[in-house]
């Protein structure tokens, strides 16, 4: 194929998807896919059919079409009498109609002397394309015989051309007609066939090459088709369809039984052995049969094959006839005399009596008495018994006292007489032989102690995986899982679906349609019960597994009739019960075909009915809501689908399924464009985005840009009225987001805007408003103001009433917990360790009242604040324990932020613990440095800035301890620069103090400590002031005593801050040394 030629497999895949979309009522997708085909193959007729398909009750289907036409009928009509012409054409039509009907086809339309027949509608079969070609061959043969009679009576010849094609057509079930290019191409195939022959298209050749001998014909141009058309001429039926050549996997016991029985026959331990395999189509019966044949042929033993044919189930002794034709080397077109001659020669070669056996075997070959032999002297049942006896004698003669194999394949297609012959051969006097039988049904197998019967079941998951690997070692995990899901362990399905995947180009997308080679068989099984289609359709729309009660509620059918239909579908292997009291399609591929066949209007109605039934029995937290939502969506009831997805998200939240909860809200948001524009749609979008942003913030952290996009979209839709519910909720969510980003200016504006709402009907939120203001003051370094506001907020919490927080708060951490954590910050920086602990204890008590995700998320936040507190207080063991809990909880609930931060703080806490005992060279210190440098870099990258300067401080502490002073100084400078840019000065004093430790210049160090001390006092941060004073005393000695004494006095005498005791000890030591 050149670069300019279209990729045929890609085009076929796009067309399959287009047809599926069209039958699902998705006209836009069907047109788009058909357009993509035409973009690379501008003359593709199937794509044009999709675009031109009318809307109505018909169906777009791939179907097999046969067109037969008398050769030169117009010229003939001009030179013979009209009555003669009518008689001849009438006989011709009768022959064609008889043959088409005999193969299950349907003639719904005639065009002049041309007859168009469809195979697969209205009565489908598992091999309709084979039936159509076989019908075409029979038409040419029978018309040839008709021509001989016409010549004898009227003096002229007639001939017929037949064309067969399979493709897309529009089935107009009301008018019993077909439309489309495929029907026209079948007629064009007919026009290029030689008189007395059949021409089939490439589409047909791919599906029948194993059933017929085909000759490729030169490409020719035909009317209405731009490119030359390639055709094939079927010349004869193949004797047997080649079995799959794929690996034989998962059948070790059966293969062992065949081998053991054959070895016993060869060794003489047994004179006769019999093995039978029963199972559904595609399960591997023929593959085992071929393995038995290969085993016998390796021993150079005789192999006799009786092969059932679905086209000849009512033809007496047909498998015997084909056996005789193969053994006697009789061609299909052999004359009666040639048949007799070859039969006689075969009997003589076997040392059998032709005089006795020819009269009994010749009728089996279709040779009647009077064509070269005398009839047997018997009639009726007696004649039938003699014929069966002759057949038995012939089979025994073929074995000739040496080991041999008799294969009876597909005995469910054997006629009664052939079955009687087969059963008569299961006797010890037959000779030394192994009989292998296969069938879909036990009724056609002779079950006795002499026959080992194996019921073949589906392959296990591991066996399926092994088969897939052997067929396509490079298949992706996703493709492998799809094959397992769709094929249900049936080897043939696995092989065909894998082959379809291998044909697909890399850019073909995810969907792989049901392979053509399986489609007809699956479709025929679905249509095996005339009254079952409404039940099948409803079950297919419900899903692979379904509750019978739900199905019964959806199908408009009396209970007794429903039960009968369900029994029929179980008997025909379409549906089956499961162990959990539900039902399922026996194969997923059956359901896929069933769904494709449902007209779009019926499909939407079923989805609607199913959703209504499920909704009527579902509670608020029911797990059916995602299913209900999908059914409403496919029923085009978009408003109800959006509501159901929102309920599905809430139900998922309540069981801790955070990812599912986000996914359901995303689906709801994606549907909004299909609702009418207006205020109601905006209101619904705000509601959804607030909740979606809430969940994203839980997963990724409050600083998530995705969450911010949701909230800012709400701001865009909500207007400017601070009293409006949507705007109030949006602003509260954005406040937390902007704080996380270190955007104090916007955060302050939001606090001021929210105060208007608080003072006009939302007094319950006054606590959060004051607390938010206090949090901003703390971040700015206004610690005294921060503490006053946060203490006020904490007192208000104790006296306010209950409120539905969930209705207006869309952040994953609870507002009460946030306020108490802020209070803990305000207290510890004042040296009030006990007060900080009390605030955290109140926060922990509040968390016990919360559900997922706010409960676990808020606990992670509270533990982070406590880790910070323990690190500042030098309580490293507790910090290590808390950080590990935070990391574990983040992993457990899918909180990525807390997983990463918990791990980083755990490493830092271990490192600081090593520092505390003077082990600065410990690998733990290096690990802590790497963790904190990685975390600070990540925070800067994603813009999570609110606590970043304190993390810079932790990194600097570890770097200083490790002697990496220059790097520590750079880290500190980054923190100070960030503080200057954002106005977050809460950690400036500590950063200045740490920076003093990075320089060896005493004057420079003294100046930095003086700045740290001065800033600490200005900010009312006695803990930071105390640290700076201690460092200054260590540097300057007695000259710094006044500052140290003042710093100690700034802390409350009741303070339990650990560093206070160290400072007091230094003062006492200095005073005693005077």
Automatic annotation (TrEMBL):
Pfam assignment, any one: Guanylate_cyc
Alphabetic keyword roster: ATP-binding, Nucleotide-binding
Domain of life: Bacteria
GO MF annotation list: adenylate cyclase activity; ATP binding
GO cellular component terms given for this protein: cytoplasm
Residues covered by the Guanylate cyclase domain: 64-190
TM ranges: none
Biological process terms in GO annotation: cyclic nucleotide biosynthetic process; intracellular signal transduction
Coiled coil: none
Protein name per its UniProtKB record: Adenylate cyclase
